[in-house]
Amino acid sequence: MTALRPNLTGLDLRAEIDRLRKERNAVILAHYYQKPEIQDLADFVGDSLDLSRKAASTDADVIAFCGVRFMAETAKILSPDKTVILPDMDAGCSLEDSCPPDQFRRFREQHPDHIALTYINCSTEVKALSDIIVTSSSADIILKQIPQDQKIIFGPDRNLGGYLARKTGRDMLLWPGVCIVHEAFSETELLKLKAQHPGAPILAHPECPPHILDHADHVGSTRAILEYALSSDSEVMIVATEPHIIHQMEKAAPHKTFIGAPGADGNCNCNMCPYMALNTLEKLYMALDTLQPRIEIDEELRIAAKKPLDRMLEMAGSTVGKGDVGRPVISGS
Ligand code: 13P
Ligand code: SF4
User: Which of 132, 175, 180, 189 fits a 20 to 30 Å CA distance from 114?
Assistant: First the structure.
């Protein structure tokens, strides 16, 4: 049966969201890949690590998480007493989908002498099967703290794992997952664009495959890319990650030009994250009004998943990986 859609015509959604945020004592957290209108009204916009830290430390009663499900689940794992809502519960992630917990458990059992260093882009069940969680901004600094002779399984992103292995010289067993968004960039089209803008540095997220990263002048998390873009002397830059981050770049440096790296046909929308795009102002309003859809996690599972997340927060410390400096971008009221 299809749920009836309420008629929101004529409603000033921004004002209503603001009213509900105050009434509910809610904090709105948004990832850089959210639509501009959501980023603009969020209390905090950040990368996965900063959003986790924010979720762990907030004194709000309600966390309205504008991102994807694994991010909202992370918020609930770290802040179990808060009500955590996600505007659209179908906001998944191809990396999470590529790593079913039962297969990951079997893989771990086949390699009992390895620890599992796991990218935060995975399910709560996979987190519970892991030793340490990392984000793209904390992976490097965490990896450096693990003894050289310790064998490591890295999942689920083979591109981030491969990038870290090349950068640090660590030989890791890689789970074969990918992000469909970062896989969509075309090397041929990127080189054509670079030829049109020869002086423009290429900024890339480590979820990109090696044939894209090979051309990058800077590789880093969303926050690191944003900070590089703002501190660089270059006036034109090519951005190889989900293009909604360009909104923050244009707001902070309106005199610069940021060009999204192209997909296969040169100008497709294939590098927009379809999961992030499920969240809308209408759904955020509804979620704040009804406090649904709400993240619920079995307590035993939550405790198991919290351990490797706590290790990440401890090991990442107050600083983050090389290239990740400065404060997160804060916007909204
Ligand atoms: P970061 O914001 O941590 O760089 O992660 C990017 C991403 O793909 C989130 O899904
Ligand atoms: Fe997952 Fe990729 Fe979307 Fe990030 S951009 S949420 S990794 S599918």
Answer: 180
